[in-house]
């Protein structure tokens, strides 16, 4: 399948192996919703070693290449380390051979042995490309009776762009937002699709639009739900389009330009999951190919990558959220999460925080002994990289009325802080001060040091402190690791009862230790946001 689009899910009629993706858990920018711990792997049990084994031709299923339908009773029998089958989204895998390669350890895998591990999997890393990683372990799929929709006869009826209400996902108002709706109208040269979200907190970064050939896809994020318009357009449209959000009523208008000035009899035909409202955690990751425009050195091992979105895509990554970049390495799809930044902390500093959304910038550390980042670094200008929809649980409302903002970052854990820092200084009137404590090994590792210091000079509300764990003898600043003494001195409020927010990001040991220390210093859970969890 192509790099753009979603994987087929459990409802696929054919047993084809779909694709989402696999992160590198050691990354400082990894975002793991379950806070999973890594387990030290034995020699020869790395991700690359697993890829080699899976490509070796060895029979990893014990079925000599056959695919079978698996009953619940059969699945339950395979619940031991040496004979372990797990079901994920309707597909069954023999993971016995993978046990020693699993970064989360054997015990973590055994929690789902002989059962449906989908929910457990989603809690920890739902973006992992298990389909590609475990392709050679595929036993088959669960034996399920085919479900016939009650309104099967109505399935293809489109009433002026509106599907019957029976087609809408049945979610009660107690569980989620009121079901949105949509309509469309046309002029000689334009087609306008209008989405009525029935919510007031809708912005330009709430809607993600992709259209390729005749396929038009618009996903609207409404609280923790996703509303999808997915249509095969009845006629051709031009690549560029415009999007307008009427925030006070939650209306989104998408204006498409007709290729030919003819009257459309209908908007088009419904495609997969069209007109559905489902919890965001149940939606697959959707990718589009973005072009590498530039990469420049920032430190000795960190580079600033600039990717350009396709002209037929509207995507603005909300502040504090991340996306996944996907590469195919030795035939296996690998992904890693990265938080977009600005091209600079200083350029156009007084401009709106959501400028031209044509480009996405990433600060990425190149690990020479790694698997993913060297491959990324080898890409040539003009090459394409699949980029996913945004993910993350940071809400801008956390910054409302904040007076003291404290940022704790280690290494490339600095990246989520870039947009938060810039947004807070421009858009939070209550803000009295922002302090960044930036942990690195050496002075050479400090990202954007001169920009940070210039910003601190220009805006007296901002202050930055560096802490080095392996400084030279010439270093006069703070040194060591995150500790009670460092934090006690750093976390001084502007007033005793000031409203405070602490953001932390870095390697898992750093954030775990940091959060423990923050709790010890009597900061509440609501006052702390961990970007690594």
From TrEMBL:
It catalyses: 2 Fe(III)-[cytochrome b5] + NADH = 2 Fe(II)-[cytochrome b5] + NAD(+) + H(+). Residues 1-40 are annotated as: Disordered. PROSITE patterns: CS, CYTOCHROME_B5_1, CYTOCHROME_B5_2, FAD_FR. It is found in: Endoplasmic reticulum. One of its GO terms (cellular component) is endoplasmic reticulum. GO terms for biological process: cell development; glucose homeostasis; insulin secretion; response to antibiotic; superoxide metabolic process. NADH-cytochrome b5 reductase involved in endoplasmic reticulum stress response pathway. Plays a critical role in protecting pancreatic beta-cells against oxidant stress, possibly by protecting the cell from excess buildup of reactive oxygen species (ROS). This is Cytochrome b5 reductase 4. The gene is CYB5R4.
């Amino acid at each position: 399948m192509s790099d753009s689009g979603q994987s087929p899910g459990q409802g696929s009629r054919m047993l084809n192996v779909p694709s989402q993706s696999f992160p590198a858990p050691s990354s400082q920018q990894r975002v793991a919703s379950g806070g999973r711990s890594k387990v030290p792997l034995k020699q020869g049990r790395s991700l690359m070693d697993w890829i080699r084994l899976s490509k070796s031709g060895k029979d990893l299923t014990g079925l000599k290449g056959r695919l079978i339908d698996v009953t619940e009773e059969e699945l339950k029998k395979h619940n031991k380390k040496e004979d372990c089958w797990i079901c994920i989204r309707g597909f069954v895998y023999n993971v016995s051979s993978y046990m020693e390669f699993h970064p989360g350890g054997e015990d973590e895998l055994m929690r789902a042995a002989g059962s449906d591990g989908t929910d457990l999997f989603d809690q920890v890393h739902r973006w992992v490309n298990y389909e590609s990683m475990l392709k050679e372990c595929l036993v088959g799929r669960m034996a399920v009776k085919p479900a016939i929709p009650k309104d099967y006869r109505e399935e293809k009826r489109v009433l002026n762009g509106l599907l019957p209400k029976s087609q809408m996902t049945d979610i009660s108002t107690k569980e989620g937002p009121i079901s949105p709706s949509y309509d469309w109208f046309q002029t000689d040269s334009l087609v306008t699709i209008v989405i009525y979200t029935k919510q007031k907190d809708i912005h330009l970064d709430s809607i993600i639009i992709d259209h390729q050939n005749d396929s038009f896809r618009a996903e609207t994020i409404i609280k923790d739900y996703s509303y999808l318009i997915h249509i095969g357009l009845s006629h051709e449209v031009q690549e560029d389009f415009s999007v307008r959000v009427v925030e006070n009523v939650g209306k989104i208008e998408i204006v498409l330009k007709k290729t030919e000035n003819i009257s459309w009899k209908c908007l088009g035909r419904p495609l997969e999951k069209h007109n559905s409202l489902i919890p965001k955690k149940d939606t697959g990751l959707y990718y589009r190919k973005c072009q590498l425009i530039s990469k420049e050195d920032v430190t000795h091992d960190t580079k600033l990558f600039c990717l350009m979105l396709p002209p037929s895509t509207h995507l603005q990554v909300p502040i504090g959220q991340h996306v996944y970049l996907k590469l195919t390495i030795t035939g296996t799809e690998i992904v890693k999460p990265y938080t977009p930044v600005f091209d600079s902390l200083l350029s156009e500093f007084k401009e709106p925080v959501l400028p031209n959304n044509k480009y996405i910038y990433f600060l990425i550390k190149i690990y020479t002994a790694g698997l993913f980042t060297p491959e990324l670094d080898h890409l040539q200008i003009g090459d394409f990289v699949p980029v996913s929809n945004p993910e993350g649980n940071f809400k801008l409302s956390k910054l409302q009325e904040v007076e003291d903002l404290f940022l704790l970052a280690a290494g490339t854990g600095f990246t989520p802080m870039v947009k938060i820092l810039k947004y807070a200084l421009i858009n939070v009137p209550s803000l009295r001060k922002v302090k960044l404590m930036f942990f690195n090994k050496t002075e050479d590792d400090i990202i954007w040091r001169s920009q940070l210091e210039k910003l601190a000079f220009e805006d007296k509300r901002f202050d930055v402190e560096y802490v080095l764990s392996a400084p030279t003898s010439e270093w006069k600043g703070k040194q060591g690791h995150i500790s009670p003494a460092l934090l006690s001195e750093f976390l001084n409020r502007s007033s005793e009862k000031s409203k405070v927010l602490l953001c932390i990001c870095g390697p898992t040991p750093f954030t775990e230790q940091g959060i423990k220390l923050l709790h010890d210093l009597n900061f509440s859970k609501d006052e702390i946001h961990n970007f690594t969890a």
